[in-house]
Amino acid sequence: MRTRKQIVVLAGLATALAAVLFIDELWAQGSTSAGGPIAVIDVVKVFNEFRQTQDLNEEFDKRRRQVQEELDARDVTLETKAGELEAFHPDSADYNKRRRELLRLRIDRENYMRFAEIEVRELFRDWTKRTYEQICQTAAEVARERGFEVVLAREELEEGLPDAAALKQQIRSRKVIFFNQESDITDQVLDRLNRSYEQKAKRPELAPLTP
After folding, report:
1. N or C end of the chain, less CB within 10 A?
2. 129-163 confidence digits (pLDDT tens)
3. How many angstroms separate the Cα of 59 from the Cα of each of 50, 63, 117, 178, 194?
4. Closest C-alpha among 43, 25, 30, 27 to residue 146
């Protein structure tokens, strides 16, 4: 006759055995085509090497140059107007008229600069969101095809961090410590995104900025 202690031990062994069998079954579900039910992806690498991102970066650089050229042209006008103002007596009607015009031009320059900065910031936010959604959708497609059930974002530790606090922060944000290379779908997702992008007739463009 088994004692209560023996029954408890046997129950514990049965639970442990069931857990091992469950883990083995999960691993076996993706072992033939994937290497496990969980996949990983380097989202930062996909963002940086996605050709759409590279083309958009060129567009944003072009926009920044356009804004800077406009600001430089306005600065030249302001400098000219300020020099002309010095030729008039402060008590004259022409002086006050030109002073008000100069003030208006300075305000217009500041408003233009603020508008351009906000517009670029919002465009960059919108394109970042759109690109991330594309990556997630493509990652889901690849994962389903290969039999993965979950996709986790993995991050590499950056080199040359300034201090231990920055290192700790990066360690806390990491979600994956170890993964089997067969579970990494980064290159597949990137290749599929780039092939799909190359098939598009039109490249992304930012709408012209009106001065």
Report:
1. N
2. 999 999 999 999 999 999 999 999 988 877 887 88
3. 15, 6, 15, 37, 18
4. 30
